Amino acid sequence: MMALxxxxxxxxxxxxxxxxDLRTGDDCRKSENSNSVCNGVxxxxxxPDHKTDxxxxxxxxxTKLNVCxxxxxxxxxNGNFSGSESLSNYAKEQSEEPSEKSKSKVAEDDLKxxxxxxxxxxxxxxxIVPPGVEPFEIQxxxxxxxxxxxxxxxxxxxTCHRTCFSLxxxxxxxxxFAELKNVxxxxxxxxxxxxxxxxxxxxxxxHVRHVRDLLKSLDPNxxxxxxxxxxxxxxxxxxxxxKKFRTDSVDCTPPDFxxxxxxxxxxxxxxxxxxxxxxxxxxxxxxTNGWNPPPxxxxxxxxxxxxxxxxxxxxxxxxxxxxxGFFINQSTDDEFNPKPAxxxxxxxxxxxxxxxxxxxxxxxxxxxQKKRTQRHPFERVATPYQVYSWIAPPAEHSIDAIRSxxxxxxxxxxxxxxxxxxxxxxxxxQTTRELPRKTLPxxxxxxxxxxxxxxxxVSAATRGAMAVIDGNVMAINPGEEAKMQMFIWNNIxxxxxxxxxxxxxxxxxDAAAFAAPRNDLxxxxxxxxxxxxxxxxxxxxxxxxxxxxxxAQSIIPGILEREQEQSVVYGSIDxxxxxxTHPKYLELLGKAGVQLKILPHKAVNDKSEEIELCSSVxxxxxxxxxxxxxxxxxxxxxxPDVNFLKLDESETISEKxxxxxxxxEHKHKLCCLRQELVDAFIEARYMMFIKFAAxxxxxxxxAKQVKDVNGSVxxxxxxxxxxxETTAALCNGHHxxxxxxxxxxxxxxxxxxxxxxxETDKAKKMVESITDVExxxxxxVRKAAFTVGSLxxxxxxxxxxxxxxxxxxxxxxPDGERLKKERQLVKDAAEFLVIVQIPxxxxxxxxxxxxxxxxxxxxxxxxxxxxxxxxLGKIAEMLSKVPQLEYVYSIAVAELITRCAKHLFxxxxxxxxxMSLSAAISHFLNCLLSSCSVPHYSxxxxxxxxxxxxxxxxxxxxRSGVLSSxxxxxxxxxxxxxxxxxxxxxxxxxxxxxxxxxxxxAIAKYSLQKISLLRSFCMKVGVQIxxxxxxxxxxxxxxxxxxxxxxxxPIVKHINPRATDAYHFYTTGQTKxxxxxxxxxxxxxxxALNLLNNVYGAMHPEIAQCLRMLARLNYIMGDxxxxxxxxxxxxxxxxxxxxxxxxxxITEYTHLALYCFANSQISTALKLLYRARYLAIVVCGExxxxxxxxxxNIGLVLHAVGExxxxxxxxxxxxGLNIKYYGAKSLKVAVSYHLVARAQSCMGDFRSxxxxxxxxxxxxxxxxxxxxEKTKESSECLRHLTQQAVILQKKMNxxxxxxxxxxxxxxxxxxxxxxxxxDMLNIINGIxxxxxxxxxxxxxxxxxxxxxxxxxxxxxDDIDEGTSKRDVxxxxxxxx
Length: 1376
Prior knowledge:
This protein has 43 helices and 30 strands. The protein is of the alpha+beta class and 1376 residues long.
């Protein structure tokens, strides 16, 4: 069998890095967030659902603390590489058949420099003896740390309540951070005792915190509140089995709100609430009390702190935490008596004490522990970055002393495990980047440390920015105007996104100041990715909160001790008037510039001196007191976008871009092209260069010489006229079609190249194999370089000068040809974006290789093409002319409206006082989305009946928040004025005109839905609303009220550190899969998963992608149970790290449903599909091709269980959508007609079934021909349906005419088998199993090996098809 998957949900290649949790020591004890997911130590009593496979992450419990990576079940010895065995050799060794060793050469060349010595794990069993619990055995290996045994004990149900203990072997206390292999005397069957230790104040506090975390471990409030890196997951709630009267029945009735063509959208099912979700209450109150701290005399008796506890039986207890444990004292609320109560219960664990005195606690805590350990570890472990929910149910606010202490203690920003000091973020960030990186373990340790410190920095920066905006941090320049104030908190520098001292006056004022941090962050991202030794960037996070933009940066050592003018040794502090340079910076930035395609150039300073620069003039170089070379202000790292710049009259853009309405004058002059666009442009120009030169070489008759040298190029002696014309068109960089041509019909440039010009690889070989430097060949190269705009005469060199259009920069030779060439390149790149990239993006949408579900995925797809969001208006214009892309058009219009609403909301919120926030936000939402023409607002100060005195009107109040205001300008906003402002913003910012007077007419005209707009807007601005049903269309009652606004969250932007080795393993595994070597690919991707866990910890979007890929591979290779197990983890992780309603999560649900059906879990499969459909219609509505896929899946599964009527409703909806978006004659539509015909035939409606099957037959006959297998199958189906229809009609006629014996014969309706339904599910989900013979496989292999010998450097692009070792092959889908 050969498996070919034709579609995959979202790009497997686009691995995006995220974050790990590297907590150590006591930090691990503090929270439930550190649990068995990250534990490398195994217990026999662990969750039985987690299996251990060679090459698969053990229980997804790869340790956070062990820096030695586990690769395919083996540990890489730290620093002990020999080069004797490479990964390629190892991958071959794993093959079942020795003969296959020579058959996988491609894709391993990249691994030759990564020689690794693999050693077998030295695994052994030890016995643990805890106090008061039966001893138990665990399996460990020599590379693990003692600390991991600590962590295991904190996770086990029977030992989790102990925190203050040591591990002893033969009376010797073990070092927590020692590797087990270094512990003297530790061997198979050794006995380790758990010994209770004396408490300190710190240990007592940690213990109380841990008990509190255990008591609230099932409480979802942290996830709703967006704290502690908690987030939501509803997979287990959705799939939990309800009690049934019949065990053999299948619960398959879909809820009414997801039925096809239902217009009403409900929100409450978005977060299904389970009774078991919160867990049983164990205590009423657990808090520190007012008798703390203990007086001196009691300290000398060992008292550490005092607690107040109220049990379920309403007993009020005062408990003392002493050095030896916890006991009840005789104090009351009014009288201090610290002596032990009688009888005296002294327990080392607070849980043991409470279990003795409260039967309710003992019973409920046991139940709580049972439920906690039943939850999947992925539901409990902390996410790398905080994920916020835009909607939440009403929350109970209970007494919690620890939460209170965290909020108001003086340790703002202090880390508990670093005594008495704040963290030096800059030193940590830079030191981790200086770690060695030569070997794989070194790189893993380095990337892990970088990721951990970065994620901690993002968390601290976010807390600090919120504190700044809320007015809780004192400015370092309190005497200045509020807009100009700057702050330092926890060794992080905070500045606001306003134009301070008219710094950005010439560039757009506040608009430029608001955009600059985002551009700067992009610069930090690319320089960090280059990762050049000796060049340092600042830790940078951009936070939008309550309408303000805050930039958080780490602090360069010594920068606060001197003026900026004295600090800067490279670049300019005034946008080019004064410029300085430095040889070391020229060297470092020159090296980085080679990778970033930045051109070294000269600028003239105020002293008329020519200064050489290797970056934009704004980029500043500062040498810190630590001797490191820092760069900052990287806002112009990329070339300017001239499509949004107003140029001088002497400078004009091309006519093709003018026809499309460019240039558009933007709000600011900091518009830059994206890195993806720069890369795509240079790659396209390089292909032009190669092909032009190759065509010219042909025309000179040099092909024969090249053939002698290379031995593999066979070409005709002269190119055709068509080739010359096409080459010329290519080298001009334009399509030959008119600029007004419908973009959907313009052929892709690449397609033109491949069909009309020399093949890329052959052209490369021809040009690169030139050894003769005759004048003729030099002239050809010179012409090719000139044609593509190369900056060098005799070689390809395209780089960008970021300062070519900077207004204040004086160029060394402003009228010279060099500068004109540099400017033309920038214009060409901007034109390339409009003429090539945007049409390519539209074609991606047309062929459904890009199929965005919401604004976020639309933005991501645009960015992958290098298209900035400011082009969305122009894209919407083009989409409006393509009926098949109506769904993308609706998404684009919704994104435009919500983004413009966000722009206005940002300014709106800046003028709102803290007390009026919820009232102002609800009023804005009413004006934006409610049909009520005059929404009523309530002022927050009405709650206290406060009237603001006139004399205080002009008083500046910094303490209640940055720029807080006491006026009520926000109350002047009305629906009409807001919509007018949105329309104006659409025109000025995006160059797009909306043809609607109100939001309601826009909803009708552009097929939008208000619930999707609400979701999108809330997620963009960080507003959390109450989970309830909202009525938008009542013209007399407003939709939102003050109580509906629950919270406001920050929107955080930051760089994403990368796991480079894991990415390399992943892509190499993909190459293997494309070649058909599924087992090798599976092993490589499994190893990538291990490395990702080493770097990121247990939770990360990239890990979710790896899990999804492994699930699909298992499914294709026939292991359905393992596929389901992996996909379950992928769903849970996607919910946690992407969001419960993210489009990726919807896709994960769909995949899991398929695997559940393959495992005969039909009821669960239906629940998952219903959930996926519900999420999809909330996110984008019913008019989307993804809904067609979901409905086909639902219809098929319902068909399988005999629910033909329900099945038909979903299948008919899928048919309509497929016709709409794929065309009436597409093969997808043929399959849909066939599915509808099957359902109708099972219902006995043969006439309708016959009609639909005729449509199927017609499409197959037209598209595939009469002799095709599918056409013949359809013909046979038609014959059977016709026969049944004739029999039925005859009998009906007999009954109608009253003939005797006229009774219905048994209709030949065969219910579908599960196997046939699964086959059809595979087809509609893009997995086709094609029968091929063993001889065909061997023939292909022989051809493949011959081609390998011919072309030395064959890469994955050379391979169109491949085969597996036996009977299954997968091609193409992994790269989609």
